[in-house]
Amino acid sequence: MNERPAPDADPVHAAWLPPSVFRALGSRRVRVDGEGPLADTVRAEVAAACARFGGVAQPTSAPDLLLTVAAGAAGSEGFLLGRRDGATVVLADGPAGLLPGLFEVVRRGEAAFDPALADERHQPAFRLRVLDHWDNVFVHPVMGQVERGYAGGSIFWQGGRLRADLSRVRDYARLLAASGINAITVNNVNVGEGETHLLTDRLGDVAAIASAVRPYGIRVHVSVNFAAPVILGDLPTADPLDPAVRRWWASTTDRVFATIPDFGGYLVKADSEGQPGPFTYGRTHADGANMLAAALAPHGAPVRWRAFVYNHRQDWRDRTTDRARAAHDHFAALDGRFADNVILQVKHGPIDFQTREPVSPVLLAMPHTHLAVELQVTQEYTGQQRHICYLPPMWSGVLGFRPTGDTSPTLATRLTAGPSGADSGSVSGRTPAGVLSAVANVGDDRFWTGHPLAQANLYAVGRLGWAPGRDPAAILDEWISLTFPEAPPRLRHTLHTLMDDSWLTYEQYTAPLGVGFMVRPGHHYGPDVDGYEYTPWGTYHFADRDGIGVDRTVATGTGFTGQYPPPWSERYESLSTCPDELLLFFHHVPYTHLLHSGTTVIQHIYDTHFAGAQRVAEMRPEWDSVAGLVDPATHARVAERLAEQHRSAEEWRDQINTYFHRKSGVPDDKGRRIH
C-alpha cells in the first residue's frame, strides 16, 4: 500500500525539479569537464545532488557519468548522449550544451545509466525558444501587475520596482533551462511610459535580472516602445527614417549592450491596439523594424516585430472588414524587405489565441522573411488556469501543419530552416533562423501557474521547442515522472485521463466549430455569446435566426480563404471539404447544415456542450480518488480549481445551448433540459 506523501512544506512548489529527481545522478560518481559559467552551473548542480544522495562529484577516475565539451566544438546547445568505457557520457557541442545534457540525464533517471543505452544526438530544432512575459513594472489600472496573468503578481516587479530578492527568478531560470527555454522577455508588449525607462535609467533593473538568469543560459529581452525617443523627451519625433531618431536608437542600444553584453534583443508591438508605430509617420512596418534592426546589428542581436496588427475600431455592421485578414494584408507584401536580423513574430492563428483557429496564413506567405510562431501558454481564452486544459495537442497541430499539402514539410520544418536561400544557422551573430515564442503564464503564486496541472503547459512549450514532432502524451508522461516522482500507475493513469484530452473537453463546452470568442469582454472568462458581437474589436459570429458563422470565402465572403496556398485555399473555401472543427470560422451556414460527422450544426452544439460539462463532472471524483497519492496542498488546489471548472462548464453549457435554442427554434433531439 502506498504511503501518504508528506505535506509539501516548501513556500514555492518545486514544479518539475523536486530534489528526488536527481537521485539517480546524485548517487553516482559524476565528473564535469568544461570551462565558463555554464560549466560552473552544471558542476554546482552535480555537487548538490551528490551531497544529497551520497555520490561523488568530480572523481579523479572512473566516473559513472561524464559531462564534457567536445574538442573544437562550435558552441551550440547540442550534445551527444551515449555510453563509453562503462560510463554514461554527455558530449556537448559547447558549454551551452552541458546544461541540456545534464537535464536530459535527470529526466531519464536510472535509464540514463543502462549499459545498453545507444548513442543519441540531441539538437534543438528552434534556435531561440523565448517566453514573453506580459508583466507590468507599474500596476496597470485595468490589467494589473501581469496582463492576462492568472497566477498572482510578477516574479520580477512589485510596486513599480524590481523585487529586492531575485532568488525566485533564479529558480525560474533553472526550471526553464530544464524544459528547454533559453530566453525571456521581462516586460509587457504593451509598453507604458514607466516601462519605457527600462531602456535608460531603469536599465540596471534589467541587468540585475540578466545576472540572475545567466547561470542557466537564459538571455534577457526587453519589450520597447516605438515612441521611446519622444516619450523620454529626447526628440520631437520617432520617424524611423529620421537620422536623429536612428542615431538615438543606435546610441541607446550601445548603452544597453555596454551594460548587458549578452542582451538578447528587442520585442515590439507597434500600430496595434493603441501602441505607437511607424504608421504615424506614413512609414511601413519594414521601415520601423529595420531601424531597430540597424541599431542591434552591430551587437549581433535581433528585433522581434509582432505581426498582431489590425483595426480594433471597426464597424460591426461592415462585413467586408475581417480581422482575420489583417496581419496578412499588412505584412505579406513586405516579404523580402526586412533586414536579416528582423524576426516577424506571428500568432499561430489569424485572430487571437482562440481555442480553435486555423494556422495563420502569414506563416505560409513570407518565404524570404525570418518568422517566429507565437503560442500562448497563459490560458487567456482556454480557462485562465482555473480549468485543466493541456495545450500541447493544439500546439503540435500547428507545428505539424503541412503548408502545401499532406506530404509537404511541416510548418516547424519551414520555420527552423529559415528564409529561402539563407544559411540555416545563425544569420547575424545571435540572430537565429528558427524562433518559437510563447506568452508566459507564471506569477508569484506558490504553484507558479496557479493551477498545479497548468505547469505542464509551461514545461511542454520548451520541450516542443527542442523537438516539435514529439508526442504531447509522451511529454505529459515525462512531466508526470518529474513532478510526481515514482508516481504509482494509478496516479499516472489518472493524470493522463484528466489531461490528455482536456483541450478537446474545454472546446466541447465553450465556443463551437471554430467560431471563437463568445467570452465576457474585458476579462475573457466565462460565456457571453454576444459580448463582442456589436463591438469594434472584429470578433463576430453573426448568429441570426437562420444560421451562424463568418463567411470568409472568396466567392461570397471576405476573401480570407484566398490568403492560403493550395490545397488549403480550396479545402477551406468549399463546404464539402472544410473540416468540421473550423466550419464556422470559414462559413455561415444554417443550423440544419449537416456536418461530415453526420449530425447537424445545432445538434452538435447541444451534444458537445452536454458532453463537455458531463466530462468535467466526472473529473472531480477521479481526482478525489488519488488524494492519498499526492501531497495535500497540491491535491487541495487542484480540487478547488476543478470545482470552479465544473461550475463554469455548466454555465457555458446552459448559456450556449439556451442561446442557440432560442435563436434557432430547433429542439434538442434527445429531449434534454434547455432553459
CATH topology description of the largest domain: TIM Barrel
What is the overall pLDDT average?
Answer: 95
**Distance, first to last CA:** 47 Å
Report the radius of gyration as a whole number of Å.
Answer: 25 Å
Fourth-level CATH superfamily of the largest domain: Glycosidases
Estimated structural class: alpha/beta
Tell me, what's the shape?
A: globular
Number of domains: 3
Helix content: 25-40%
Polypeptide structure, described:
By secondary structure, the protein is α/β, with parallel strands linked by helices. It folds into three domains: about 10-120, Chitobiase, domain 2 (2-Layer Sandwich), CATH 3.30.379; about 130-485, TIM Barrel; about 505-550 and about 590-665, Alpha-Beta Complex (Alpha-d-glucuronidase, C-terminal Domain), CATH 3.90.1330.10. It contains 21 helices and 20 strands. The strands form five sheets. It has an eight-stranded parallel beta barrel. The chain has a six-stranded mixed β-sheet with strand order 2-1-3-5-4-6. Helix 9 (about 285-295) links the parallel strand 14 and strand 15 (about 305). Helix 4 packs across helix 14 and helix 20 packs antiparallel against helix 21 (about 630-665). The protein starts with about 20 loop residues before the first helix and ends in an 11-residue tail after the last helix. The model is unreliable at about 1-5 and about 425-430 (pLDDT under 50). InterPro entries: A-glucoronidase_C_sf, GH, Glyco_hydro_67_C, Glyco_hydro_67_cat. One of its GO terms (molecular function) is alpha-glucuronidase activity.
